[in-house]
Amino acid sequence: MKAAAFLYPWDVVGDPDAPARLADLGIQQVTLASAYHSTRALTPRHPRHRVVTAAHAAVLYPPGERWRGREPRPYAAGDWAPGDAYGEAARALRDAGLDVHSWVVLAHNSRMGAEHPATSVVNAYGDRYPWAPCIAQPATRAYLTALAAEAAVRPGEETRGTELESCGWYGLAHLHAHDKIGGVALGEAGQYLMSLCFCGSCREGYAEQGLDPDELARAVRRALEPVWRGGHEGGGWPAVEKLVGVDLAAATRAWREETARTLQEAVVAAVRAAAPTGFQVLLHADPVPYHCGANAGVDPGHILSVADGVVVPCTGGAHLLEPFAARAGGGAGDGPVLAANLTVVSGMGGSPATLVADAARAAELGATELRLYHAGLASDADLAHVAKALSHAK
Questions:
Q1: pTM, rounded to two decimals
Q2: Is cis: bond before 374, omega within 30 of 0?
Q3: HSE-CB of 52 using CA atoms within 13 angstroms
């Protein structure tokens, strides 16, 4: 089974030994960040540094002329990835015999929300989520579509495909620095209601579904009152229906899912129009359409008719693969890519020591490829487990 590892350009640039070390793991591909959100990352083997702080969301290459005079626009990286860090890293990896696919984060950008607050998701209480651009707004959709085409398809021969993260709704869950919103257990239903957007575009969308946006916001606030007192309705769509009623829940879901589907179609089409023949387009995806976040909620049958496949979070269990496998048909080599994403950083909740068994279980549930998160963050001991597992797989 083909295995690929996620990587940042700063894991490679300035470390001449990195490409060979990665190739020696037994992977065939690196999924290399080209547009990424703010982060603080460990670099345990780099000869020049141990911690890289990416202060804001940025593209890790020089932004193109298409952005001249446009707002919003992508920001160039600072000293954590100067110049064409993506291109430099990609060339070094290709020279080591590894395929390179771009890793593009879309609807997750705190700097955009800070500088253009009107682009952000607004909850039922009027609070803005600056990390979450609202994907219903026409200007935001145009920005995300153009960004995807540029960041996915880098010039030259270095990049053979892309993996698009956050290509859909982002909501309350964020993993923000010094995050302190876990004091009340929201449950899946509370997360959904706190992620509903009430910006101007979404209010118009709700009205098209026959809803009064002000009454909807009041209904959401009423439904959440028991949650703030320490009770919640658990998970699953029935809990959302119980909190706000079947009709209101269905109408919000219809608006949000149509908005996400059409964005995903537009983004994939833009990437394909900019890419050479044979360029592969995958989405990080969750098979529950109303979910939001880095792994965007999708309808499995629809997304597999649009993209070449999906990258599915499987750390802790590979069950999310099953809905995609049920709609994929065929098998490895003649159907869509179903990549099982397994965390191999033990300090981040991964289990590299059980990679052989985890990969086998993922394959049983339909996985055709593996994605390993994250070769740059993992310790030497974690990478030794990866190399042993991939050697065993051969």
A1: 0.97
A2: yes
A3: 29
Which amino acid type is present at position 259? T
Quote the CA–CA distance of 117 and 126 in Å, as a whole number. 12
SS3 236: coil
Grouping H, G, I as helix, E, B as strand and the rest as coil, residue 100 is: strand
How many CA atoms, within 13 angstroms, populate the side-chain half-sphere of residue 85?
24
Name the residue type at position 19. P
Q: Round to whole Å and give the CA distance between 194 and 180.
A: 15
The residues with which 39 forms a beta bridge, in sequence order, are 54
Report d(CA 29, CA 22) in Å as an integer.
9
- Alpha helix (H) residue ranges in 30-172: 85-95, 110-115, 138-152
Q: Which residue type sits at 329? A: G
Number of C-alpha atoms within 13 angstroms, CB side, residue 106?
A: 37
Q: Given phi > 0 = left and psi -120 to 50 = alpha, else beta, which region is 285? A: beta
**290-334 confidence digits (pLDDT tens):** 999 999 999 999 999 999 999 999 999 999 999 999 999 754 457
Q: Where are the alpha helices (DSSP H) in the chain?
A: 18-23, 85-95, 110-115, 138-152, 187-195, 200-208, 213-228, 237-244, 246-274, 300-306, 321-328, 355-364, 380-393
Polymer length in residues for the chain: 394
Rounded distance between C-alpha atoms, residue 339 and residue 233, angstroms: 32
Contact 32, 93 (CB under 8 A): yes
- Share the mean pLDDT of the chain: 95
**Cα(380)–Cα(358) distance, rounded to whole angstroms?**
20
In contact, 149 and 106? CB cutoff 8 Å = no
What's the one-letter identity of residue 55?
A
Q: Is residue 370 over pLDDT 80?
A: yes
pLDDT, tens digit (0-9, with 9 covering 90-100), for 249-267: 999 999 999 999 999 999 9
Secondary structure of residue 360 in the 3-state scheme = helix
* CA–CA gap between residue 22 and residue 9 (Å, rounded): 13
